[in-house]
Amino acid sequence: MPESTTKSRVSRHAAAAALLAALLCAPAPAGAQDAAAVLAKGSGLYFEASLAFQRALGRPVQVYDLAAGAPSLPRSLKAAAAFGSKAAALKYPAGAKLIILLAPGYTPPAGSRATVVSAFPEPAQALAAYKSLQPGLARLAVFYRGAPATAYLAELARAAARLGLEIIPVPLDTPENFPDALRALAGADAYWLLPEPALINKTSLKVLSEFSCAHKLPFYAPSAGLTELGAAASFAPGADEAAAAAADALTRALAGEALPATLYAPRSALTVNGDFSRRCGLPLKLPAPAGGAR
């Protein structure tokens, strides 16, 4: 690697570290205590998403890092964005509206005033993307777990009906259920694993990938990163898109607008693993080979 590139990356990392320290340690600007960002961990994905959140919001807010200990949240807080399940589970001041993001699998308690920015893509967008990639798609099996996914499946089925598709719901409890569930699939043209941490590990991804290749059934992964590990494609919102949706929701909450329990990021991205799909002979409409996954 050229020395100039290395120095540039080191410089960027140093700048990000300095900005992180400033955001987590500096007091909030005057008048900003009506809103806050609470991070399960003040580094990595949550930190990057919090920066995107503040850019979309158009102003800085006080940032709390739970890795540094339980914060003392101001009583004046009207709305907060919680990044991650740990941040979502924190106790917030009475009356504060909570916007939750980057917390797949988390379910707010009954009676909560929280709005969740879904880790799932908007149903009609997702189905249209997969149908465009796989023109022969008629029946899509969907692996899922838990209440949030159950509600999503109902929306997905309604969107599928409008597109002439059929959804085959496959509820699972643990990753160990995948081999039996795959063997029991009948008539599915592809299968999609929704983002559920309790179902995702190296073994389950290997099982899904190998079955896909052996049976020429496209496996659609929960995220772009997992697509590279042996899936045909993924259609999912990125952290920046989720952060922008959370910023918009927080702005609306501060304005007194009522929000639904669930919101979708307005845009998601289709990521295709062309190498895997060609090697396995999957029935997809792929562009000309360009060397590797795209």
Can you walk through the features of this model?
The protein is α/β, with parallel strands linked by helices. It folds into two domains: 141 residues, Response regulator (Rossmann fold, 3-Layer(aba) Sandwich); 127 residues, Response regulator (Rossmann fold, 3-Layer(aba) Sandwich). The protein is built from ten helices and twelve strands. The strands form two sheets. The chain has a six-stranded parallel beta sheet with strand order 2-1-3-4-5-11. Strands 7-6-8-9-10-12 form a six-stranded mixed beta sheet, sandwiched between helices. Strand 3, helix 3 and strand 4 form a beta-alpha-beta unit. Helix 2 packs across helix 9 and helix 4 crosses helix 5. The N terminus is likely disordered.
Largest sheet: 6 strands, parallel
End-to-end distance, in Å?
Answer: 23 Å
What is the total number of structural domains? 2
Q: How many strands appear in the DSSP assignment?
A: 12
- CATH arch. level architecture of the largest domain: 3-Layer(aba) Sandwich
Q: What name is given to the CATH topology of the largest domain?
A: Rossmann fold
Strand order, largest beta sheet: 2-1-3-4-5-11
Helix and strand string, N-terminal first? HEHEEHEEHEHEHEHEHEHEEH
- On the 0 to 100 scale, the average pLDDT is 89
